[in-house]
Amino acid sequence: MQTLTLANIYELQGLKEEALEIYKEVLKKDPANSEAKIAIRRLSGIRKKFLNVNSEMKEFFIKMDSEIEINEFERWLLKSWN
């Protein structure tokens, strides 16, 4: 069952795409649901912001396992956000 509670849990766990899909389903069933509308706007903005994320760095992030790699990724993040 697609509920706001489940979407909130997914969002808190970092599963933004899954949460977004649930919010959209909730809104289809209840077009006046303001919480779902707000969440969709918020998560859609996040998705747009990260649409062009460097896929190479994404893979690097997933696989990194040393302090040196973590530091390299942090430097890349700081450079990317400035």
Please give the number of β-strands.
0
What structural class results from the helix and strand content? mainly alpha
The profile of the biggest β sheet is: none
Q: Return the string of H and E elements.
A: HHHHH
How large is the count of helical segments?
5
* Contiguous runs where pLDDT drops below 50 for at least 5 residues: none
Described by the principal axes of the CA atoms, the overall outline is elongated
- What's the end-to-end separation, in Å? 41 Å
Radius of gyration equals: 16 Å
Total domain units = 2
Q: What is the helix fraction of residues, given as a range?
A: over 70%
Approximate strand percentage: under 5%
Overall pLDDT level = 82
Protein name: Tetratricopeptide repeat protein
InterPro entries: TPR-like_helical_dom_sf
Pfam families: TPR_14
Structural write-up:
- This protein is an all-alpha fold.
- Helix 2 packs antiparallel against helix 3.
- It has two domains: 4-49, no CATH class; 52-82, no CATH class.
- It contains five helices and no strands.
- The model has no long low-confidence stretch (mean pLDDT 82).
- The radius of gyration is 16 Å and the shape is elongated.
- The protein has helices spanning 4-12, 16-29, 34-49, 55-63, 67-81.
- 77% of the residues lie in helices and 0% in strands.
- InterPro entries: TPR-like_helical_dom_sf (IPR011990).
- This is Tetratricopeptide repeat protein.
- It comes from Sulfurimonas lithotrophica.
